[in-house]
Write a structure and sequence with these properties.
The complex is a heterotrimer of chains A (179), B (99) and C (661).
Chain A lengths: L2 H23 L3 H21 L3 H26 L13 H23 L16 H10 L2 H22 L15
Chain B lengths: L2 H21 L3 H26 L3 H31 L13
Chain C lengths: L1 H11 L3 H50 L4 E11 L2 E9 L1 H32 L5 H19 L4 H19 L11 H31 L4 H14 L1 H18 L8 H4 L5 H10 L3 H9 L1 H5 L2 H23 L4 H21 L3 H37 L18 H4 L1 H15 L5 H16 L1 H26 L6 H4 L6 H16 L10 H7 L12 H23 L11 H6 L1 H7 L4 H48 L6 H22 L1
Antiparallel strand pairs in C: 1-2
Helix pairs in contact in C: 1-2, 2-3, 2-4, 3-4, 3-10, 3-15, 3-21, 4-5, 5-6, 5-10, 6-8, 7-8, 8-11, 8-13, 10-15, 11-14, 11-15, 13-14, 13-19, 13-25, 14-15, 14-18, 14-19, 15-17, 15-18, 15-21, 17-19, 17-21, 18-19, 18-23, 19-23
Classes of the chains: A mainly alpha (179), B mainly alpha (99), C mainly alpha (661).
Chain lengths: 179, 99, 661
């Protein structure tokens, strides 16, 4: 692999982890959200490098564009960036970080001890993750999950509206009967 | 790049997401950490899709994104509703389960 | 001939009725008693007992034809492997003798109780308890019948326990009365507990029999005795001695006689029926029935004879120092039971049964008459109290009586007959039966003979003392002055019993020996009874001398008033006090047995039960509580903590997957 490629990937990795850490540490919620947007964008680039253009763009549109915007709306709506103090529960921080390290070690062990797959990502053609191919597979093999997901989205929409609906008596006008 | 690069990156992002869920008090930031965890999983899916040259992983990522969007919508609606009563989104204040 | 055979064979089949009729009486009284009124209740109960008596008579007549008797099984009770125990009735001469005594005297006492309890429930203030009394009385007859008609040791034990229960129920009949509101209940408890100790002995004997003989059936056991005796010589001694323990409990011998005087707390008909005529004889019956075993263990027989003789003498002394009319009779019963037990020990079972029968007659007579006297005194108390607010003299204390013969002539006559019979004056019944026992003692064991003669002397003396104190002299209190003769319902049974006391000697008159021939079928007569004139005359002389002495001490200068000291007290001083205090036997038991036992029970109750066992259980509870309290801290309510624990679980699952799969 050419050196430039390695540097490129390392750079992307650092940016991704860095923005994640930034989101973790930053007290201001809006800054955290913005760091997350950066993270998503980096991941999208990685998708491109993995030969999934459609997914990459979907990531940008849906995640960075819709979901994070929604987050930012809510944050500004609730005035949450002014949340005071950072008081962890006693002993939480240490235990959590310790467990996280253990977790990482375990995953590493999994990879080295149990894993059969290893090796480089093979070379992919431009056609691999193209919208056309994805469309073909989606609408033939995975048609049912597709429809179900549509249903899920519908129910989520309805749910979101129901949850935020204020309790207000709506006066009902009955049509007068006219003989 | 070898496979292990992407897997390692994904693992680290996932762990950071978990830490975010455990350590942050702001409910919205917790949600965002959840999204981070989702993304870590998505990365693994796409990686293996490319590795095995099968599109199934990418399809699955598509669905995950859709469901995550739905979940975020509902979750944020919940937060708004809670905020109306508690006037705070500090998750430590929602401790009615305390026994 | 065929008709006769079928008649007498089928007559034997009637034997379950002796138990079922009293049970029917109980049922009828229980269900319909309230509606029938006192007369109805009494009639049903008396008819039930009378029915038992009629059946017993029929059985006796059938036995005259068919001497061997029969075994009438009712149903199979226990059937385990090769061990078969059925509830069977045994009809033979010994059983029928007991049945006749129990049901005969029992019926008379039922009739007496109608009149007696009518007064008593009003005196004690609870007229509704009349019905309960008769139910218990019928229950007692039923249990006693089970005991005497049993064909095996276990059914006998059922009856044994049943009469013990009835004794408890009837002694504590007025359970809320007595000293300190508890006295009667305590007496009942004492009877039950002391009997229990005896029952323990009997149970061990039954266990030994079962273990070594493999069966509990009388016929089979007694047939196997010679073989077992050769094989295991100590075994029969153990069985008979344990059985003796049971007998000392039920028949009030040393050392377990202490319940009987306290049992006088029950109503008088109870004392008459249970503690004079029937229940206490169950022990004697048991030993007579198990005669074969005793004959195979001569050392045990010796022990039995001495226990009986010593009891007879000891109780005689105590009777001499008692002032309560019923207590004197109670100790007299113990003493006479000692005679019977001694007779069994000497191998003279017929004499024992003879004395048992005559004793039932005149002791029941004496108790019932004493009841009549007490009723009269109670009447006198109420009459006397009309004038001034009464201080309650004890209607049972002999010192409060005197000259009763003028007020209650019928009672006086029957009491006198009973007393003379008990003292052994010819030609009353007691003379013959006691004489037979003395003859057996004379031929068997001179030492016992002397002891029994001394006991006979005491018997006559204290009876003379009692008669003179109660019926002669001057009326010492208002109660005695105003005493009234009892109703016919009360005195009629007394007269019948008096008749029986006079004629009872005919059962086994020398020369005819009817009872002996009757019992020959069932028992092995080792010493046929003889009438040895010197001993007979000697015992008569002893009794007469005793009566004369009693007259000299109590008759010539009767007690002046109720508070006067007993003339014997001056002469015998400390010894009299000891006799009055029952030789402090109860106190001895209290100090040696009951006190330490209570302390032991206290120890187990408080440090062990409360401390250790409760401590362990409560400790477990509080441990669980504290543990739960610790676990409770896990529920912080913070979602982040829950997330953390989920993460921890995730890590553990990964460890599992890592290492297993």
């Amino acid at each position: 692999m050419p050196v430039i490629g390695t540097i490129f990937y390392v750079f992307l990795g650092i940016v991704a982890i860095g923005s994640a850490l930034g989101m973790l540490i930053n007290r201001n919620a809006i800054y955290a959200a913005l760091f997350l947007v950066l993270n998503f964008a980096t991941i999208a680039v990685l998708y491109l490098a993995l030969g999934a253009p459609f997914i990459a763009l979907t990531q940008i549109i849906v995640y960075a564009g819709a979901i994070m915007v929604l987050f930012l709306f809510v944050i500004t709506l609730l005035g949450a960036e002014k949340l005071p103090g950072y008081e962890p529960i006693k002993g939480h921080r240490l235990v959590a970080i310790g467990m996280a390290l253990v977790f990482l070690v375990e995953l590493a062990l999994f990879y080295f001890v149990r894993n059969q797959t290893t090796g480089p990502i093979p070379f992919l053609s431009a056609e691999f993750g193209s919208p056309k191919n994805i469309g073909v597979v989606m609408f033939t093999e995975y048609l049912l999950p597709f429809e179900v997901v549509a249903f899920i989205l519908l129910s989520a929409t309805v749910g979101a509206i129901m949850l935020t609906k204020p309790d207000r008596k709506v006066p009902v006008n009955l049509p007068q009967q006219q003989d | 790049m070898p496979l292990s690069y992407f897997l390692g990156l994904s693992a680290i992002m996932f762990t950071i997401g978990v830490l975010g869920v455990i350590l942050r008090r702001n409910a919205l930031v917790i949600f965002m950490s959840l999204e981070l965890m989702f993304n870590a999983a998505n990365l693994v899916f796409v990686t293996y899709a490319s590795y095995y040259q099968v599109l199934t992983g990418q399809i699955f990522v598509f669905f995950i994104m859709a469901v995550a969007a739905a979940e975020v919508a509902v979750g944020l609606a919940l937060m708004v509703a809670i905020f109306r009563t508690k006037h705070s989104i500090d998750i430590d204040q929602m401790s009615s389960l305390k026994g | 001939m065929l008709l006769q055979e079928t008649v007498m064979n089928s007559t034997f089949q009637l034997v379950p009725l002796v138990v079922l009729l009293p049970l029917l009486g109980i049922l009828l009284n229980w269900l319909f008693g309230k509606r029938l009124g006192e007369k109805g209740i009494g009639s049903i109960a008396s008819l039930a007992a009378g029915g038992s008596f009629v059946i017993s008579v029929l059985l006796a007549l059938a036995l005259l034809q068919n001497h061997e008797g029969a075994r009438v099984p009712l149903f199979t009770w226990i059937s385990i492997g090769t061990f078969d125990l059925s509830w069977a009735f045994r009809v033979d001469t010994l059983a029928v003798t007991m049945m006749l005594v129990v049901s005969g005297v029992g019926t008379l006492i039922h009739i007496y109780s109608i009149g007696y309890m009518h007064e008593d429930v009003r005196h004690q203030g609870d007229p509704d308890r009349f019905r309960r009394f008769f139910i218990f009385l019928n229950l007692f007859i039923a249990a006693m019948m089970i005991l005497v008609s049993a064909d095996n040791f276990l059914v006998l034990f059922v009856g044994w326990e049943g009469v013990g229960l009835c004794s408890y129920l009837l002694i504590g009949f007025w359970f809320e009365k007595g000293e300190g509101g508890l006295g009667n209940a305590k007496a009942a408890k004492k009877a039950f507990t002391v009997n229990r100790i005896g029952d323990f002995g009997l149970l061990i004997a039954i266990f030994l029999i079962f273990w070594n003989f493999g069966t509990l059936n009388f016929g089979e056991v007694f047939a196997m005795v010679p073989a077992v005796a050769e094989g295991q010589p100590g075994l029969l001694m153990a069985i008979t001695l344990f059985m003796l323990l049971g007998v000392t409990g039920k028949s009030a011998q040393i050392p377990l006689y202490v319940w009987l005087p306290d049992a006088m707390a029950g109503p008088t008909p109870v004392s008459a029926l249970i503690h004079a005529a029937t229940m206490v004889t169950a022990g004697v019956y048991l030993m007579v029935r198990s005669q074969v075993m005793y004959m195979a263990a001569p050392a045990a027989q010796e022990v039995v004879a001495w226990v009986g003789a010593l009891t007879a003498l000891f109780a005689g002394f105590i009777a001499l120092g008692q002032f309560d009319i019923k207590k004197v009779l109670a100790y007299s019963t113990i003493s006479q039971l000692g005679f019977m037990v001694a007779a069994v020990g000497l191998g003279a079972e017929v004499a024992a049964m003879f004395h048992l029968t005559t004793h039932a007659f005149f002791k029941a007579l004496l108790f019932l008459s004493a009841g009549s006297v007490i009723l009269g005194m109670e009447h006198g108390l109420e009459a006397g109290n009309h004038g001034h607010s009464g201080h309650h003299d004890d209607p049972q204390d002999m010192r409060n009586m005197g000259a009763i013969r003028k007020k209650m002539p019928v009672t006086f006559v029957v009491y006198l007959i009973g007393a003379l019979a008990l003292a052994g004056i010819a030609p009353f019944a007691g003379f013959f039966s006691k004489d037979e026992i003395l003859v057996a003692a004379n031929q068997g064991n001179m030492a016992i003979f002397i002891v029994l003669v001394a006991a006979a002397f005491l018997t006559a003396f204290y009876m003379g003392r009692q008669v003179l104190m109660v019926f002669f002299g001057d009326a010492r209190t208002d109660a005695a002055k105003h005493a009234k003769e009892s109703s016919l319902l009360v005195t009629m049974p007394l007269m019948i019993l008096a008749l029986l006391s006079v004629l009872g000697g005919a059962l086994n008159l020398p020369g005819m020996h009817t009872l002996e021939h009757w019992l020959e079928e069932t028992l092995i007569i080792t010493h046929p009874a003889e009438f040895i004139v010197p001993i007979a005359v000697g015992s008569l002389v002893v009794a007469l001398v005793a009566l004369l002495l009693a007259y000299l001490v109590y008759g010539r200068k009767p007690l002046a008033n109720a508070k006067a000291a007993d003339p014997l007290a001056k002469r015998l001083g400390v010894i009299f006090r000891w006799m009055n205090q029952k030789f402090m036997v109860d106190e001895l038991y209290q100090a040696v047995v009951i006190g330490p036992y209570h302390k032991l029970a206290d120890f187990f109750a408080n440090p062990v039960d409360l401390g250790v066992i409760d401590g362990v259980v409560n400790g477990l509870g509080s441990l669980t509580t504290s543990f739960a309290g610790m676990l409770r801290k896990l529920q912080t309510g913070f979602a982040r903590t829950y997330a953390l624990s989920i993460f921890a679980g995730l890590i553990l699952i990964l460890v599992y997957i890592l290492t297993r799969i």
